[in-house]
Design goal:
Elements: H1 5-16, H2 29-63, H3 66-82, H4 84-89, H5 92-108, H6 132-149, H7 153-164, H8 169-176, H9 180-205
Helix pairs in contact: 1-2, 1-3, 2-3, 2-5, 3-5, 5-7, 6-9, 7-9, 8-9
Length: 206
Amino acid sequence: MRVDRMTAVGVASDATSGTRGDAVDRESPARLAVATDASAEQEFVAFVERSKATLQHVAYLLTGDRHRAEELVQQTYERVWRSWRRARDGDPLVYARTVLANLRIDTWRRTRREVLTGVDQDGFGDVDRRSGEHEARVHARDAVVRALMQLPVRQRRVVVLRHLLDLPESEVATELGMPVGTVKSTASRALARMRQIIELSEGDQS
């Protein structure tokens, strides 16, 4: 997988290299900044190692493709590192999952042309491709994504954060800047609309 320890070090090092110098006085502000950056880099690398499996799984659920998932996770870590001070003050994993979801939502752009192929050449997930189970799961995932793409942006974000990432309603409310009651009502309307879209789609295909 691309997001390994060396990748994490590379992401962090690229962002902090501008503060490092060969001749810096031990007590100077620049010296203290270097020490702080080094500590942050170590924390970030440790976070990557703890979280990469979880984020890879989430990314795969949102893309249906191992390589797309890896790219999405890499982009997520780059964003998280740039806001690492903010991320580590709270729950870095929650922050990273939210960044990942928002990145994925932004790529959909309400387009109906993208479908999830379910291609997984390296065996991501325990699925027997020789059975009809895999095809059924791919079809179901495609139907959900198509329905999501037809929702208004706010409804789409609520559904992804609340139901695909399984974040508590309170965290979704904080992330989207809305009351918990609005999260509940928005999710309810969005899910009802998605069910309607999926039922209509299945009716057209029958």
